[in-house]
Amino acid sequence: MPWRHLLLGLVVVAVWGSNFVVIKAALAYVPPLFLAFLRFALAFAPALVIVRPPVPWSQLAAYGVLIGAGQFGLLFLAMTSHISPGLASLVIQTQVFFTIGLAAWLGGERVRRVQGLGLGFAAAGLALIAWQGDASATPLGLALVLAAAASWAGGNLVGRRAGRVDMLGYMVWSSAFALPPLLALSLVFEGPAAIVEGVRGADGATWLAVLWQALGNTLFGYAAWGWLLARHAAATVAPLALGVPVFGMAASAWWLGEALPAWKLVAAALVMLGLALNLLWPRVEAALRGGSR
User: I need a labelling partner for 257 at 20 to 30 A (CA). Which of 101, 148, 163, 164 fits?
Assistant: First the structure.
């Protein structure tokens, strides 16, 4: 991978990782489900100038609901007061294991032993987080982020069926289908009064955070990532995602003063080891096969 492409990948990872701090800032005023609605409303705005990719409407709808209402709706709910930004950036990466499990269950793909081993390490890290039970992560927060990761995994499988389409257009048009469920859930569970109060109380920094959610994290991040995947093997690009929780935990410690005690670092190391085994092992295995010839 040329160094410029590598730099682009690192910028995307830094944006995705530090975005958890941005989310926390926006949640100080805006209710979580309505924040997710605003994010995808702004992400849908470029549909006026971006052509819809040649995929079925049903696929765009499934992706929009899973990523919008599922992944980010649940994640934002968890981050109101149930889990810290740093730990959220780590736990959400379990989508790798949910993706593998769903592919095995729905698509008949074989789960390798090393993937099971990686899942074991990650599960040990999550168990440590749950066992500590301090203000960094409550059981409800952990459950919500795990559910968000499972929804992300479902979106991954739906998106994979689209093939190599314009990912920017795909994200823009699928965002339309995230809006109705998010708005309905916000009105029912948060209520119009909380929405109005949140919008009135939001300052300039809050609206910049909302804008960053749509333009920086969603449109730039996913479009750049898709651009890289179209030019390089997935085994080359995917391991860069290991940097998301690194940036997430570092940004949370720096800007929000999130504590990083020994138990949290051990838990992060276990989860990261599990992720690394799943993302990097195919390259190691291929290299070993090539060397044995």
Answer: 148
pLDDT tens digits, one per residue of 191-225:
999 999 999 988 898 999 999 988 888 888 878 87
Name which of 62-71, 129-138, 172-181, 250-259 the model is least confident about.
129-138
Q: How many CB atoms lie within 10 A of CB 160?
A: 11
- The rounded percent of the chain whose pLDDT value lies above 70 is 92
Amino acid identity at 193: A
Strand partners, 137: 83
What's the pTM?
Answer: 0.84
Long-range CB contacts for residues 279-284, cutoff 8 Å, separation at least 24: 279/96, 279/238, 279/239, 279/241, 279/242, 280/239, 281/112, 281/114, 281/115, 281/118, 282/235, 283/235, 283/239
Of 217, 224, 228, the residue nearest 175 (C-alpha): 217
Strand locations in 48-205 (E): none
- pLDDT digit string (tens) for 221-258? 878 877 787 677 665 676 787 788 889 888 888 888 88
List, as one string, the DSSP characters of 53-90.
PSS-HHHHHHHHIIIIIIIIHHHHHHHHHTB-HHHHHH
Q: Using an 8 Å Cβ cutoff, are 129 and 142 in contact?
A: yes
Nearest to 62 by CA among 160, 141, 131: 160
